[in-house]
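step 3/5: co-fold with FE2/S2 (inorganic) cluster
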Amino acid sequence: MNTVETVPPHLDQGFIDEAEKIISQYPVSKRSASLPLLHLWQKHFGYVSREGVEWIAQKLELEPIAVEEIATFYPMIRHRPLGKYQFKVCRTLSCALAGSYQLFDYIKQNCNALQEVGHHVYLSEDGQFSVEFVECLAACGNAPVMMINEEEWMDVTKEKIQGILAQLRKK
Ligand code: FES
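step 4/5: write tokens
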């Protein structure tokens, strides 16, 4: 295995420092840092690419296949990017009681986001939309609540979803 570390140009020092800190927490077996590093990569880049697997493997002095095996074993690790428009539907109690599960299915169907690309994360074929559940978004009094990218939407109804989708499709 090549022991000369290649640093992809878009990896900033903050990311590398965070990765080093994680690795230092596993002095006995660096291999144990694989999953936390996969999570770190996904947190920064939205999913774990081939490049991510290779970089982590190099960092931990493992063969890429060893990291790949872990990445494919855990369903919460995504191997594809999320959509351009990311729907995050709250599934915590108030929202669940207000119909967020039905809303989730409705959004999935209407965005044609039927392909599961991670743990309960669905992506449309054209890559425009992804739909996933999240926990409480701290607006329980206005359930059901969701986010689209960074914007929060409250008291969501099917009609509201139709209007939002019509707007997004025009962009
Ligand atoms: S339960 Fe959904 S916002 Fe709190």
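step 5/5: annotate
Helices lie at 13-24, 34-45, 50-59, 64-73, 93-97, 100-111, 158-170.
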